[in-house]
Protein 1
Amino acid sequence: MSSLLSMKTIAIFVRYLMLKLMKKIRQPDDDRPVIAAADQLLDVLLPSAFEFFRDSRFRQSVDFEKQSHVEQDRIFNELQVSAMNLCLFCLEQRESIIRLDDFHFWKEVYERIPVAFEEKLLSFGVDKGNARLFKDLIGIRHEEYAGIMEANDEWMNREDEFHAIADNRIKESMIRVHALVIGTADHIRRGKLKKDDKLMKHVRSWLLPLDVKINRFIKNL
């Protein structure tokens, strides 16, 4: 088992190095590095959402076994959409972690992500109509969570401890993760989220490390 995991880790690392090389020698009309970068980000986001979906503490917090299969599927869909939107927000705020000459590359990756996700769903056997609805849901949630982020920015900057943080990257991370925690938990609760709901703690424990992983990928590529 450990040898299989090691081989998988090596394969992922080699794939990443190949992408890094493709990006470095990329020609203006070559879309392959953009497509590959979006695909590799999806290979981080989707397994992360699935792993959290299977987490026993998370399932206990939502009374998972008591939910219908339709409701269980809906919860999983919300987690996938949240993972996608976290990545999109990281890419929108990429200026603080990338070189200026990489700006347009990551803009193209940003635009590619929803399309790549739709293609991934189709490859899983999802019909075109549902795949398109899923893609549209990402856009709907993105607009909604952006509104929460704006409110968070205004609210957090009133707090002395937050205002004292010198690193803007940390501030950006705190604002976007907190917005997604609130939005995701509220949708899972179907709009009945309470102020001290423990579900938010579980969602935060998932999204914070994922935020770090996404930004590390963007910064180091």
Protein 2
Amino acid sequence: MSRKKRLLLCGCLVFVAALVAVYGAGFTWRQILVGGLALLVVQAADEQFTKAFTGPQFNRYQYQITLINLGGALRAAGLYTDELEPATSSIYEGMLGKGEIVFTWLEPQMFFLNTVNRFSSNLEFVIGLPAHGSRIPARGYELPDILEMRMTDEAYQLVLLTREERYCWPETTRDKGVVLLRLPYKFFGAMRGDPYAIGRHQKQSAILAESGLTYWADDEVSEAWDYRNEYVRIRWSGV
């Protein structure tokens, strides 16, 4: 049934209820009108009371991050300078997710990290990069180069860390690595609430633009869109 038909049916039912109240129960039309207005006021008050304690609407989203310039990231990290092209292809094929990182935001403090197949209260994970050529460890216990999603004071950061940068005291890698992506915490706040609210897209775009992500869309294909920078692109969908 269409929305227009449902609204027409609703109006007819309300009118029938008013007729029953007037001619069946002896109410006057004035009493029906005043009672109806009072009921609307009570319903509005109940909605505001509920919103005051439930907070913003929460919607579940699945995010997909795609590495579009792993070679550039490896170059920026000083890796594979003499064998960049074959190393990039080899790493793409061998890494978990083959260049795609997927996670699902289930609850305000709950993520499912699809690519690494685990739940987490925050968006932190590590993906090892397979070694190629000159980076193949001579000894089995050497650390691999990695992609790490980490927390900072204001944002999640996806970074490329070399094995040399990882040989340090714990937590001292926080300022190291090539930053591939920044997702400010306030961006996730902007994802909450009515997905069709006026100005929502502009607010999200402004936050991501501050982090160096540019919105791209195909004018002819409505589903072809993403946000991208030099190294990655990111998009999401409701679940």
